Amino acid sequence: MSENRIIAELQELNLSYLMLVQKLIAEDRDTAMFRLKIDEDLADLIEGLSAKELTLLARQPHSLLKPSLGPVEQLQAVLGNKRDTGMQQTHLAMLMASV
């Protein structure tokens, strides 16, 4: 895959992500802030961005997404547990919320 294609896909992902974040904030601000791990100032800024501003921000050749999966050891422990006790989803949710 060419570098130009990778950058174009990254920009498309950025725009989709920003639009989703804006939608989540509009629908349920407190939950969005918690799930996205953003503060009120950033939520205000993103919520107020126009389509032109969203596009400008998304067109950066860098990812706006930052994985927040927690410490590798903890994630490996949850995912690598061979005894599925039905609690894997709960443990993953707790890990993600604590990061």
Automatic annotation (TrEMBL):
The keyword Cytoplasm applies. InterPro entries: Flagellar_FlhD, FlhD_sf. Keywords: Activator, Bacterial flagellum biogenesis, Cell projection, Cilium, Cytoplasm, Disulfide bond, DNA-binding, Flagellum, Transcription, Transcription regulation. It comes from the Bacteria. Functions in complex with FlhC as a master transcriptional regulator that regulates transcription of several flagellar and non-flagellar operons by binding to their promoter region. Activates expression of class 2 flagellar genes, including fliA, which is a flagellum-specific sigma factor that turns on the class 3 genes. Also regulates genes whose products function in a variety of physiological pathways. This is Flagellar transcriptional regulator FlhD. It comes from Pseudidiomarina fusca.
